[in-house]
Structure to design on (93 residues):
């Protein structure tokens, strides 16, 4: 569904990386045997995974709230990126 939406190619590629859990977060870099701190750079509370960084981080939640308020929609935060993409595709939001 990512490739069917009319968005810039760079955004489609990045969205594909997120949906496939392939973006280089600290968690993914640690899987590649890099010695780094795994905490989220923004909130420093949890492990920096793709789902945390783009959906559940308290700093990201502020941005989501602005977006949701501007759109005037009721939306429950999904558990992961794939669920978010699926509900946007289904609801047309």
């Amino acid at each position: 569904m990512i490739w069917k939406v009319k968005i810039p190619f760079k955004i489609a590629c990045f969205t594909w990386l997120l949906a496939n859990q392939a973006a280089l977060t600290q968690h993914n870099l640690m899987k590649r045997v890099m010695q780094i701190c795994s905490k989220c750079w923004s909130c420093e509370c949890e492990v920096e995974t793709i789902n945390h960084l783009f959906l559940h981080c308290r700093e990201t939640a502020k941005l989501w709230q602005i977006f949701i308020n501007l759109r005037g929609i009721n939306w429950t935060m999904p558990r992961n990126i794939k669920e978010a993409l699926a509900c946007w595709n289904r609801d047309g939001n």
About this structure: Residues 2-91 form one domain.
